[in-house]
Queue: 2 jobs
Job 1
Amino acid sequence: MLITTLAGLNANAAVDPNFNYHVDRFADIEVLRYEVPEFDRLTPDQRKMLYYLSQAAQMGRDIIWDQNGRYNLQIRQLLEKIYTGYTGDRSSQDFKNFETYLKQVWFGNGIHHHYSTDKFKPEFSRDFFLAEVAKIPAVDLPLAPGQTPEEMTATLTEVIFNPAVMAKRVNQDGTQDVVATSAGNYYGEGVTQAEVEAYYNAIKDPADATPVSYGLNAKVVKDKDGNIKEETYCLNGLYGPAIARILYWLGKAKDVAENDRQKAHITALMDYYITGDLKKFDEYSILWAEDTASDVDFVNGFIESYGDPLGMTGAWESYVNFRNNVSSKRTQTISENAQWFEDNSPSDKRFKKEKVKGVSAKVINAAMLAGDAFPSTAIGINLPNSNWIRAQHGSKSVTIENITEAYDMASHGNGFNEEFVIDKPTSDLMDKYLYITDMLHTDLHECLGHGSGKLLPGVDPDALKENGSTLEEARADIFALYYLADPKLIELGILDNPNAYQAEYYKYMLNGLMTQLNRIELGNDIEEAHMRNRQLIAGWVLEHGKKKGKGGKDVVELVKKNGKTFVKINDYQAMRGLFGDLLAELQRIKSEGDYKAGNDLVQKYAVKVDKNLHKEVLSRFAKLDIPPYRGFINPVYTPVVDEKGEITDVTISWPENYVEQMLRLSRDYSPLTK
Ligand code: ZN
């Protein structure tokens, strides 16, 4: 049977060419919107399911705000009151600075930066703030129980303006008490790190092979007698009013579930929210991990623990999504042909697997992002987090394609190509093919690269020691690079142009030799494994390609134009040959456990930075206005209701800007502040 183009030029076949990705820009942030391809192919019941799950997602918004800091909800209400009721000059500097601060607070789900976790520095004056608060009638102020307006104003003014108060949300400096010095709200006031650790050590059983995720849904507090105890997040516990609303919408979603398995994991999740019992959460996680058939899928709960300085309690988040059929076919095709890729790799036969199994990861479209996953979000997820569940029941690894795509589309025209890419034809090729070849590079890396090859009998899997992860990432990356240029991808219908791979080759060399240095401070070496692996590959190819290209030219070289350094690739086919050579060598190093050869490669190519080039890259980036952080607002889902008041279908639209969406969420989805 003929395989039609699966992903070719348009992985994004459903995409509206006039879709406007750009929403807002302030401080170090750009806010984007994302499309939801294939929404139209869903059945009305699936769209209803998306709608109910989206409601459940948004109902948890207040939870993450409170987890991020005990004054966040109060501050949000107060700032929004000032913002919407302001009668002065909206173009005045104080008001504009106030607006920027409010936008930052919305983006951080609280008064700290989502990434650095440092407290935002307000650029508007205390006087402005105090004058505006004074204009609000006392009955409209978000007072805490028993609080006077004066007390509220005094407390919040300090929290907002004094840089020493609640300076960092997550303090990971191990020389300090990280619980007492973190401003997040995962622990009650006055609780110390030693007290939390003693509490959990007393209840953990080290012999338990299937332990629950201790502390995942609890705040550890000190009661009035000084006893340490947990307050559980559940229907009749902490965050109960928000959890009640989440449960209501999960119940609706359960009624339109696609199959019994999905119904079963929604039921288990609801039981867990009702009881707070972590054994129920494990039950749910297993049922969820094993449900690979459902089209519409979601995460809703206390999941990732980066916000807790002790890494135990889950930040509330939700992702609602469904399978991207077009791109999932791509990963499926690659996985089904895993043996062909293994058999045809340039590695020595002794290091190849006789029987190789591709990992099938699915590609999804996000339909709603919420909680800790909003507005800043990941482009891939791999859950559940419990180690024993992953080992015994597997995990789901997903790539969120429409988010990746929005990043890519929004980057066009940001000046990066003009500044760093050597010429127009290369830049045009990247505009056209980088998105698909980037995705494909990730697919090949994840589905095949890591799983290819084998160790010789008796070789210790940890033989490469501290270089293990750098060399492993390099091996998977170069496997992907080598095959990106293979005619097999055209034959399989995955690419439609035999030169498409050149877009990824150019970007990879540019990034590995130059532009990734933007993420490093001047004077530092490269430490992070993925960055090391990229420089290793790019640096090795630069050196080994000297005079090896057609006509005796260098395969790739660094050239100067108007005093600026550029990557110039003279022979793409020869470059593929070099990738093949390095793949064979990296596979040999892994298969034989050759620590010395691996360490030599890492030390020679991966760690050291050319300081002059580094300085140049930093200054060229500084001139471009490329926002360091980006995030999203969500589309709006509107139910179609028949004359009996029943929901029959759901439509999607993007009518809002950032401010409008944030104010609507605060108005319609704030069960903890009403
Ligand atoms: Zn990897």
Job 2
Amino acid sequence: MANVTVIGAQWGDEGKGKIVDWLASRADAVVRFQGGHNAGHTLVIDGKVFKLSLLPSGIVSGTLSIIGNGVVLDPWALQSEVEKLEAQGVSISDDNFAIADNCPLILPMHRDLDGLREAAAGSGKIGTTGRGIGPAYEDKVGRRAIRVCDLAHLDSLDPQLDRLCAHHDALRAGFDQPPVDRSALLEELREIAPFVMRFAQPVWKRLKKVKRAGAKILFEGAQGVLLDVDHGTYPFVTSSNTVSGTAASGSGLGPNSTGFVLGIVKAYTTRVGSGPFPTELDDMDGQTLGERGHEFGVVTGRKRRCGWFDAVIVRQSCAISGVTGIALTKVDVLDGFETVKICTGYRLRGKVYDYLPAHAADQAAVEPIYEEMEGWQQTTAGARSWADLPANAIKYIQRVQELIETPVALVSTSPERDDTILVRDPFMD
Ligand code: GDP
Ligand code: IMO
Ligand code: MG
């Protein structure tokens, strides 16, 4: 098994970016396979902070970075992210960066629709990132999308624009909005096309070559399993499949290439946006987790909701995504708690559940059953070996892996790249 697939096992923001960056130096290519610039991944290297949304987290270490066909790509957001990173000293060229030519585009009309729908939904809104992700995926599945390869054929785009705009104009009329300004859109596409086309290629072919050469490929998931459009807390989910299986379809490599599935798991739970969250805390403990964990969204700056570790959802995510081992992150945020709690099951209408039921009303109504453990007063921040961890922190980690029925491969103890404990090397498995 030479390859590794990294996915989030909760509601996103588990620390995927940090772990992908840490693993990237051992990989020959890093591939994003779903989502878009709704993702926000923070890397900290020797105190320098890099925030990525669309670019694969391997770009900072100079590893070949690829945006696969499963991603929805906002070309303007990409351009500003590339410029921002170049200003931070990261080099990005067609040597180390490629975009799938069959990747669908996020256009301004998608962002408009995302915003209009959320505003109209009032308190029933999803709490999306407002990036146009859902509407762009709808157009992909509806066979109306404009794709990266279309940027090389803008003179013959009219029939596609007819179909796309007919759909959007009807929706916009329902929101009292004017039709799409087609000539302005075409002009904007003409301007951005050379920038995108520099990197566009059939990446499945490039990956085939990389694979044949025996290179190690790292697949980088965005969001988390509980935000998966099939397996998540529907309808409070994102519009892509976030599970490990998507690494194959979203990159153009077969399922026999995805290798070790590394689930990234935060030592407690957070969620940003609306939707059920059984272990959410509205008390001082929740506030402490948020403050110590700096739980604010990278993309929208929104405050993340915080709660105790929920072993039920992580066990479910690990099963659904075929997780081989987990990286347990932000253990240091639990330092100093007198006691820590783990949710081991749910109670619903007098019945005990060992899984999260599918119905939205049931998901909102389940009550967590907690197990309490003694906390630790020593600091784990910056620990780089088991020997640096206090006994109660080790007990907590062991209990987590027991309850989720999946072994721990890595432990992360600060935002810094090297503050990481390696238990089992995913690339050597
Ligand atoms: P991602 O979306 O999964 O990549 O995660 P985010 O980057 O959105 O959020 C994780 C946040 O936690 C970032 O600010 C990271 O710098 C930070 N982080 C990652 N691992 C650790 C850790 O072990 N300890 C602490 N204290 N922070 C961490
Ligand atoms: P990373 O990769 C956390 C959430 C949004 C909202 C829902 C739908 O950083 O872990 P969307 O804009 O995708 O239609 O929003 O999904 N969401 C995330 N939450 N981390 C993310 O990405 C997220 N990407 C989307 O907050 O609830
Ligand atoms: Mg994030």
